[in-house]
Amino acid sequence: MNPWILAVRPRTLPAAIGPLLVGNILALELEQFSILIACTSMLCAILLQVATNLANDYFDFKSGIDTEERLGPVRVTQSGLLAPEKVRNAMTLCLVLAIIVGSYLIYHGGWPIAFLALAAILGALGYSGGPYPLASHGLGEVAAFVFFGLVAVVGSYFLQAGETNTAAWILGCAIGFLNAAIMLVNNTRDIETDAKAGKKTIAVRLGIGQARVIYQAFVYLPFALIIGSFFLGFLPGAPVLLAGLALIIARKLNSDFSVTSGEALNPLLGRTAKLTMIFSGLFSVGLFFV
């Protein structure tokens, strides 16, 4: 496989695409809805996700976290497939492109979007790099919840509407939990190597038993949120019903995660990412036809 495809990690892109899809479809009925804004925000999110992946590859190699004992998918820097300078330059290019694309969004959305853009860039760099790497201090799942849940859904809706609403915040939380579950699978798989490297993820801090309990909460809470919100009148029934079908997948994932560890978690990582996309896609279809 082309090493750049390995570096970009396409299987992680649903984490960026799903919440942007929901946020924009939620605003579709608005008179001022703009397909240009929707496509631009999606492109910006994908660029930031790719930049984050490249940053993880580069900074984890430079800090010594990625070693030959790594159990996850191939990291191109650690494996020698790409020179560190090339990965760093590609990361920088993606961030520059995200800033260029995002400039239009900032022009359209004003200072709130400028603040979110700055936070997103700092998050991309600070996840694995900088003086206080979020991933090394048990904040990886929190970052995924905030940036690939709340910021992505609420921010994309705000760009279209000029304001937020309760539904956007609820869906931001729901998708944020699913994306946090992706991160938790990754960190649970690497629990032994991360502990050796001094990377204190939630899985390292609490152990695999508690990580499995947290994963169960992450994949079930989104369904509790949308069902409860339907009964409270915050969400319409059709999208809740459709997205609820993904609960079948969530139950299977939870069952498999509870008895799996180490390298065997790699396929489950991709399946958890697919759950985010399926949940987001089904909810969006339901919204579209309401």
Automatic annotation (TrEMBL):
One of its GO terms (biological process) is vitamin K biosynthetic process. The keyword Ribonucleoprotein does not apply. It catalyses: an all-trans-polyprenyl diphosphate + 1,4-dihydroxy-2-naphthoate + H(+) = a 2-demethylmenaquinol + CO2 + diphosphate. Its main location: membrane. Its EC number is 2.5.1.74. Keywords: Cell inner membrane, Cell membrane, Membrane, Menaquinone biosynthesis, Transferase, Transmembrane, Transmembrane helix. It is found in: Cell membrane; Membrane. It is a multi-pass membrane protein. Pathway: Quinol/quinone metabolism; menaquinone biosynthesis; menaquinol from 1,4-dihydroxy-2-naphthoate: step 1/2. InterPro entries: MenA, UbiA_prenyltransferase, UbiA_sf, UBIAD1. GO terms for molecular function: 1,4-dihydroxy-2-naphthoate polyprenyltransferase activity. One of its GO terms (cellular component) is plasma membrane. Gene3D superfamilies: UbiA prenyltransferase. The chain crosses the membrane at residues 34-55, 90-107, 142-160, 166-186, 218-248, 268-289. It holds the Pfam family UbiA. Belongs to the MenA family. Type 1 subfamily. Conversion of 1,4-dihydroxy-2-naphthoate (DHNA) to demethylmenaquinone (DMK). This is 1,4-dihydroxy-2-naphthoate octaprenyltransferase. It comes from Shewanella psychrophila. The gene is menA.
